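Q: Hi! First time doing this. I have a protein sequence and I read that you can turn it into a structure. Is that right? Here it is:
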Amino acid sequence: MSDAGHGDTPKKHTEEELAAMSRDELVELGTNLDGVDIAFRRERWPVKDTKAEKRAERSVAIWFTIAGISALAFIGIYLFWPWEYKGMGEEGYNAYNLYTPLIGLTMGLAILGVGIGAVQFTKKFIPEEVSIQDRHDGGSPEQDRKTIVAELSDTLDTSTIGRRKLITRSLGFGAGALGIMAIMPLGGLIKNPWAKGDKSDLWTSGWTPTFPGETIYLRRYTGRTDDVVLVRPEDLDAGAMETVFPFRESERGSERALAHALKRADNPVMLIRLRTEDANKAVKRKGQESFNFGDYFAYSKLCTHLGCPTSLYEQQTNRILCPCHQSQFDALQYGKPIFGPAARALPQLPITVNEEGFLVANGDFVEALGPGFGSVLHDSDRQPVQGLRSRRQGGRGHGLSVPPCRGHAQADQQGLPDPLVLHARRDRALQLRNPADLGCLPDAVLRPVDGGGRLRRRLPAAARRRDVAGVRHDTRHLVRGSRRPVRPPDPPLGRADVRRVDHRAPPAHLLHRRVPSPA
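A: Yes, that's right. Below is the predicted 3D structure, encoded as structure tokens:
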């Protein structure tokens, strides 16, 4: 019977009394302490090991087994099923078309199997019970902790799960496989994007030569992946735009290589033929004056905001539009953004015409395609330098490109200085947390000072003593009266080397406001 009625203070039992109680007595005590009255309770199988009980046990085990098999099937399909894109009519199209449905089907069956198995076990083996519990407040004394252990042990025993090896093994199989299934997709996230070094996917595209002097043609897409139609200058009318893709002679006859060139995300390039009067007034980016061929300009089709395709071209205004977030780029000003969230010009592909009269790439892109990104750099001695890395022609260059400020974006063609590249030698690695703060003035120059090899910047008085990443700015090295930086003499070994390189466009998230000049 109950040791305490509803609303009464429960009797406190000594440790000796609790130790002398049986498990059933502790269970009864625990329910009474919680204010629980068991109004009805009946075992599902009063007679053990009947045929009906065995059938019920097998039905539960079947669902757990289905869950395990489905989870293993998910893992196999995820790892080995052909997932590469195939167009309609191509070999392997049906298998590719089934990849996503099979992934969803096997995952759904695995989750459904465990859920149905758990519900079936509860309905067929857990005793029927109707309990009434009163609400009560209070902590958990020692007797509560002992009684809850007894209750859990009693629940495990009365559920009969301990003696049903078939169910426990099938449950372990299904739940274990389900856990592995949940972990497997995370493998795609655990990947080092810089494992290939300079050949990493973020540094290269289909326009990157695989060997020096390789000819990469501009290819037209006809709707068939195996068609190779090369573009000539006379193929486009004035004011026309066409999306082109890279083609190498080594890919001819290889359906897989031809299809991959069309489907790689960073391969599409907009080939624009400006009208003659527009081409004559086109503003070219510093260092990229020879990237066009006559009236032909080639820009990456990936928006520098979030990588959406800039598929719209206004022939009358010469504007390139991104339909996703309404960024606009001016084709007459090296693809410079003039509206919307994009803050970096579209990368331009250098093009020319070969001796056969076909348009070909005259080199690789010199900057990252699509949205900007940060990375960890290394100098020529493989010492780490933190900051932004821009792609250089040929996919090389271990420098850190210091970007101009947002205020310079509209005056790039007016003689502002090129960015600086900082190199750290073996004995002194230069650490920059925010390289954009080091490129905000047209008359600024970095030079090594004092014996420590630190870099100080020539700044106006308004920015005196402003610290950036531990580099103190000193007005003793202020340069006035010139918009172009003064290159210091080559420093001795063991100090940072300051060099000038071709222009790089920085990612949007590293662009900073311009530091004001003194009055």
